[in-house]
Amino acid sequence: QVQLVESGGGLVQAGGSLRLSCAASGRTFSNYVIGWFRQAPGNEREFVAAIRGSAGRTYYADSVKGRFTISRDNAKNTVSLQMNSLEPEDTAVYYCAAGQPPIYRSVSRKSDYDYWGQGTQVTVSS
């Protein structure tokens, strides 16, 4: 079992920055891919970014590439999502998730993630 707790959400103006954190407890953290997903009202939950456990390879949705940066600290069991140049379209509840998608498969599939946090609200005003 892995428990995940997100923090760092809030209200920010367009062009601003926020840093989200995901704190994990439970099973060996470094064994898991940690992903960030987001869900806006009326929309499906969508992939934002992910980072593999061992080599730390990172993946991003096209919509956030160049603006968001995901990183992890396995010693502290935390994953961060630095969000810069925020846009109103980034407004959503952001969730972190832990899973073990095979190396040969995309990390963006929600079904590959077994554990989810409760989410943190990010609101970007125009």
Task: Please describe the structure with a list of short key phrases separated by commas or semicolons.
126 residues, mainly beta, globular, four-stranded antiparallel beta sheet
Secondary structure layout plus pairing:
Layout: E1 2-7, E2 10-13, E3 18-26, E4 33-39, E5 46-51, E6 58-60, E7 68-73, E8 78-83, E9 92-99, E10 113-116, E11 120-125
Parallel strand pairs: 2-11
Antiparallel strand pairs: 1-3, 3-8, 4-5, 4-9, 5-6, 7-8, 9-10, 9-11
Q: From N to C, what is the helix and strand string?
A: EEEEEEEEEEE
How many β-strands, per DSSP? 11
Percent of sequence in beta strands: over 45%
Low-confidence stretches: none
Number of helices: 0
Radius of gyration, CA atoms, in whole angstroms? 14 Å
**Structural class estimated from helices and strands:** mainly beta
Question: How would you describe the overall organization of this protein?
Answer:
- With 126 residues, this protein is an all-beta fold.
- Helices cover 0% and strands 52% of the residues.
- It has strands at 2-7, 10-13, 18-26, 33-39, 46-51, 58-60, 68-73, 78-83, 92-99, 113-116, 120-125.
- The strands form two sheets. Strands 2, 4, 5, 6, 9, 10 and 11 form a seven-stranded mixed sheet that branches. It has a four-stranded antiparallel sheet with strand order 1-3-8-7, with no helix packed on it.
- A hairpin with a 4-residue loop joins β7 and β8.
- The protein is globular and about 40 Å long.
- The relative contact order is 0.31.
